[in-house]
Amino acid sequence: MGSPTKVAVIGAGYFARFHYEAWSRMADVELVGLCEKDAQKGAEVAAAYGVSGSYGDLDVLLSQARPDLVDIVVPPSAHLEVIARLVEEDLAISCQKPFCGGLEGARKAVALARNRGRVLAVHENFRFQPWYREIKRLLDDGLLGDVYQVSFRLRPGDGQGPEAYLDRQPYFQRMKRFLIHETAIHLIDCFRFLLGEPSGLFARLAQLNPAIAGEDAGFIVFEFGDRVRGLFDGNRLADHIAENRRRTMGDLSIEGAKASLRLDGDGRIWLRSFGSNREQEHGYAWDDRGFAGDCVYACHRHLLNHLREGTPLETAAEHYLINQAIEEAVYRSHEEGRWIKAREWQSIR
């Protein structure tokens, strides 16, 4: 197997704990350090996940821990500055989203990494949720036949009232761009993963909770080529049927010439043949651990396999710029009240 990959993590907030937990389970990874300004929090996280050292200064971490890979799990406003420092070292970089706070910063980060020949990946984990990997396999096998349309109803039910999001991610309330920038971009990426590149879109967005700064509901209509349609229908105030409403965060349906597919809130996949009134559950294996079917682990593993074995990388930051350009097109469509064709976001990428 060779020597372990030395991983360091920057950040120790709410979602960073999923990152540490996933890295700690990999036999070919050594967690050599973390960077966190709050010394007590850093020490607690290091002890909890077997991290060799906690550092309050990034330069000290880099010189003493000497990581092969640095995982950035800090607020987006800090991404570009951290990446600018990391590309000076001979290491790979993974960064959480919203990547660099938006397209402008992301472009700069990609250019920095490209100029120094560094691997820069975005931790976009939704496409690694096991149900999406299985649905992609079923589509590739032609089980549904020609696909007509896909729709996703985002319904986490965590956005009501003045206390919305405060118990877990309080900064959500202050985001001027919220539903699309923070959440729907996951589904934009999943739609691209499942169906390929969209050829156009139209969006209408709304703010339902006056306690927050940004939009929390909206529709995006997509076209994929000439025949396939997609709908993202998001509302963070409404909920859906699920044992854990953050597992899938909603319901997905895909309709095709041979069969229709439905993903429910518990991660179960249901299939119904065309002309039949009977829906059958499609069994597949997945682990109910970590976040959303252990997708943080799967996303980490995917990057690690690329670094250690040279396998293709789905999460390259340069490729992720397309998601961010589509995000900009969504906001433009809403503001201007018009259909946006792909050539427009391709030109701003």
Automatic annotation (TrEMBL):
GO molecular function annotations of the record: nucleotide binding
Domain Gfo/Idh/MocA-like oxidoreductase N-terminal: residue ranges: 6-122
Signal peptide: none
Pfam families: GFO_IDH_MocA, GFO_IDH_MocA_C
InterPro entries, sorted: Gfo/Idh/MocA-like_OxRdtase_C, Gfo/Idh/MocA-like_OxRdtase_N, Gfo/Idh/MocA_oxidoreduct, NAD(P)-bd_dom_sf
Domain Gfo/Idh/MocA-like oxidoreductase C-terminal: 136-341
Protein name: Putative dehydrogenase
Species in which this protein is naturally found: Limibacillus halophilus
